[in-house]
Amino acid sequence: MKVLSRSVRTRYDPDWNPLQMTPIDPRIVQVLRAATRVVVFTGAGVSAESGIPTFRDKQTGLWEKFDAAELATPYAFERDPALVWGWYEWRRAAVQNAKPNPAHHAIATLANHVPQFALVTQNVDDLHERAGSRDVVHLHGELCRPHCENCRRPYAIPEIPPQSSQAGRINPPRCEFCGAKIRPGVVWFGERLPEQQWLAARDAAKHCDVFLCVGTSSLVQPAASLTDIAVNAGATTIQVNPNPTGADGSMTFTLRGPAGTVLPQLVAETWAAVNVR
Ligand code: APR
């Protein structure tokens, strides 16, 4: 059953009025309230309202301004380590200066209402953790966990990254054990996902009864295949995204709107009158 639920009026709608938000489809509220195992799967869109650009949004997306091949592959780091390291330090500074938004907080609250919960993210920022979420499964690594490209030992990166409005060239530090370059703690295109995180995400998608997919274009594999795993396992799949995505066809329900508006509303309408479990 594929249902595009009535869109929730959003900021994109000129006569949007927060006091007149369209109630969320009661079937979504029902299925979420009855859920025992929930997976929330997030992408860059969940951090967009914190001022962190997504990757593929027209004009604003990072890959609109920067060339992924120049910056997000092991070959790019080999070719020009200072350019790549500088770019990731610039991104780390942006994340540090950002704050979790109502979407991050709603997800942390949702976790307290369901017996079994897993949060799987493609994001390399720590905004979920700063909003109070625990045991976040980072499929694409974390900006705050750089490591040696050779011996893979973690590198204790200075808390405060260099602050600059533009991404500048910065030579990566060297590993104190083997002297090799320290690389950003993220998964680059062409690299394998961290095994444990992938197995945990796949297992959670296989056994959930509700799979909530928030702020991702569902274009990057293998992460995007988690939705299919959940669909094949018979889960109800719910998408929150203001724009059409590659997963529209796999969703039981789609809520068209910004996560920072839709998720707090969803949590409030689902559990407003229910005590925390
Ligand atoms: N609320 C919800 N969704 C939003 C919002 C918002 N406020 N703003 C934008 N979006 C949606 C866009 O419509 C888009 O579908 O977020 C999605 C962002 O998609 P991408 O930029 O492709 O980001 P993501 O899906 O996370 O990319 C996956 O690709 O570049 C790699 O490793 C990187 O983890 C990343 C992966």
Describe the structure.
Helix 10 links the parallel strand 6 (210-214) and strand 7. The protein has a 6-stranded parallel sheet, with helices on both faces. A two-stranded antiparallel ribbon has the order 4-5. Residues 1-14 have low confidence and may be disordered. The chain is of the alpha/beta class and 277 residues long. 43% of the residues are buried. It has helices at residues 26-33, 45-48, 62-65, 68-71, 74-79, 81-96, 102-111, 127-130, 195-206, 225-232, 259-271; strands spanning 37-42, 116-121, 137-138, 147-148, 182-183, 210-214, 236-240, 253-255. It is elongated and about 55 Å long. The structure holds adenosine-5-diphosphoribose.
- Helical residue percent band: 25-40%
Counting helices, strands and paired strands, the structural category is alpha/beta
Bound small molecules, deduplicated:
adenosine-5-diphosphoribose
Distance between the termini: 30 Å
The quaternary state of the protein chains shown equals: single chain
- Mean pLDDT over the residues: 88
Q: Give the H and E element order.
A: HEHHHHHHEHEEEHEHEEH
Output the radius of gyration: 19 Å
Largest sheet: 6 strands, parallel
**How much strand?**
5-15%
**Number of helical runs?**
11
What shape does the CA trace take?
A: elongated
What's the arrangement of strands in the largest beta sheet?
3-2-1-6-7-8
What's the total number of strands?
A: 8
Low-confidence runs (pLDDT<50, min 5 residues)? Answer: 1-14
